[in-house]
Write a structure and sequence with these properties.
The protein has about 200 residues and is mostly beta strands. The protein contains one helix and nine strands. About 15% of the residues lie in helices and about 70% in strands. Strands 1-2-3-4-6-7-8-9 form an eight-stranded antiparallel beta barrel. A hairpin with a 2-residue loop joins strand 6 and strand 7. It is elongated, with a radius of gyration of 21 Å. The N terminus is likely disordered.
Amino acid sequence: MKHRKYLLKTCVLLLLFVCASAAPSVYAQDGPPESQKFGVGFKVLAGNDVTAIGANARFWTESPLGFEVGWARDSEGISASADGISVDASAHIDVIPMSALYTLTHVNTESVYIRPYVGGGINIARGSFSAGASGYGGSSSVSVSATKVGAQGFAGAEFTFKQIPKLSFGGDLGILRFGGNSGFAAGLQVHYYLK
C-alpha cells in the first residue's frame, strides 16, 4: 500500500513538471477570459462515504497557477423513542480543503471556454458526534469531536459558456484523504466570477 502512495506522488510530480515546462507557451497563446480572476460559489464533494456541500472560492493568477479554498459539511441525525425512552444522535463532518491549481492548457471554441487543470493540497477535517437519551425521569448525553489534517490530489476542468462569461461550471476527480481514511472523491462546483 505504501508503494502505491509513493508511486502516485511520483506520477503527480512528474505530470506537474511536464506541464510546468510545456504549458506557458500554450497558455500565453490563448489565455483565460479577462472576467475570470476571482470567483465564489458552491461545491459538492463526494467520497469516503461522505457527501458534503459547502462554499468555495477560486482565484486565478495571470500565470497558469490558481488557488482554491472552501468549506463543506456532511451531517446526519437520528431520533427514536420507544417504551418511554427517547434517543437523539447527530454526527457532523466539516472539511476545509485548500489547494493549488495548475492549468494544463486552454480550449477556446466558438461557444465554450474550457480550462483543464490539476491540483492538490491539504484539508482540515473536523468530526463531531453527540447523543442523548432521556426517559423514566433521567437523562444522559455524550459528545466527542476530533480534528484531522489530510490531503487531496485531483484533475478536473472548468467550463464557461461565452454567453455568460462570469459563470463557470466544473468538476474534478481525484484522491481524498482525511480522518485516517482515503479513497476516490469527486467534486462538482459552480463559480460566479466577481472580477
